[in-house]
Amino acid sequence: MKERLEALKVEALGELAAVGSQQELNELRIKYLGKKGPLTEILRGMGALSAEERPIIGQVANEVRAAIEAVIDEKQAAYTAAETELRLRAETIDVTLPGRPAPVGAVHPLNKVIQEIEDVFLGMGFTIEEGPEVETDYYNFEALNLPKDHPARDMQDSFYITDEILMRTQTSPMQPRMMERLKGAVPVKFISPGKVYRRDDDDATHSHQFTQIEGLVIDKGIRMSDLKGTLLQFVRELFGAKTEIRLRPSFFPFTEPSVEVDVSCFMCGGEGCRLCKHTGWIEILGAGMVHPRVLEMSGYDPEKVSGFAFGMGPERIAMLKYGVDDIRHFYNNDLRFLRQFAHL
């Protein structure tokens, strides 16, 4: 048995010396040291040896195994080192090469305008409140003094999900929602930006989905002059210190009196140009004093408190501010268009 072990050692070391790849090395490891290999077979036959022969043969078998394992480990280390060297060469970084510029994103022009508007009103003590885009008919219409037979409830104008649930057509539902939440407490002073939905045909100035910013102030002794002063401060922060505003009578079901608000053209300074259609004025929002009925339905006593509300479309402001002639540009995700605003 000793002779068999010595012969096995010579055979294994000879094959290992001629090995040419890591795969061959793994195959020889299994061949000589595996459970079905000749070394294991010899060791299983030691039970037939005498008590004097067993330790001698066992020592020889261990020496043969150790010799084979030493050569395998040495060659394995060589293969691993060679593989590591090849990988390091392939992954070498030439630090003298110029860097590759990484494209950096920028704030969407519409989001930028919304953030600017929010910053202005936050500076005036307003809070920012957000509400659900899927709204109930009550908050979207009825609580805003739009009764069941009002034309704005026409199924052709709004995206109704059921008879009582629809995609909100304005951010105004946050008025009754906030008043109910505050349970008659004053002051109320917030703006509510968000997406709204209407069944409009998309064109250069209309979209089925767009954004609005609603504002509401309620307190004791609120007057139309407070509304005008707030909006004047807002437009001067947004468009420049020399900007003026003009209030024109209008009608909204949830405000009385109601006004359309124009700003002096920031392009020509009010002298008249193509942007303002040579009038010197640009319409940007609607506003008015909160209708007593709206206050009453939401738990406020119109005899004790009053308020004003306003609403604007950030798309229109962004179009005017950046000279954009088609509202669809804001939603087409055309990088050629968006990259123009990366530096703003």
Automatic annotation (TrEMBL):
CDD domains: PheRS_alpha_core. Its cofactor is Mg(2+). Its EC number is 6.1.1.20. It is found in: Cytoplasm. PANTHER family: PHENYLALANINE--TRNA LIGASE, MITOCHONDRIAL (PTHR11538:SF41), PHENYLALANYL-TRNA SYNTHETASE (PTHR11538). It comes from Paenibacillus chartarius. Mg(2+) binds at residue 256. The lineage of its organism: Bacteria, Bacillati, Bacillota, Bacilli, Bacillales. This is Phenylalanine--tRNA ligase alpha subunit. Its main location: cytoplasm. Belongs to the class-II aminoacyl-tRNA synthetase family. Phe-tRNA synthetase alpha subunit type 1 subfamily. HAMAP family: Phe_tRNA_synth_alpha1. GO terms for molecular function: phenylalanine-tRNA ligase activity. The keyword Acetylation does not apply. It catalyses: tRNA(Phe) + L-phenylalanine + ATP = L-phenylalanyl-tRNA(Phe) + AMP + diphosphate + H(+). Residues 111-340 form the Aminoacyl-transfer RNA synthetases class-II family profile domain. Tetramer of two alpha and two beta subunits. Keywords: Aminoacyl-tRNA synthetase, ATP-binding, Cytoplasm, Ligase, Magnesium, Metal-binding, Nucleotide-binding, Protein biosynthesis. The keyword Plastid does not apply. Binds 2 magnesium ions per tetramer.
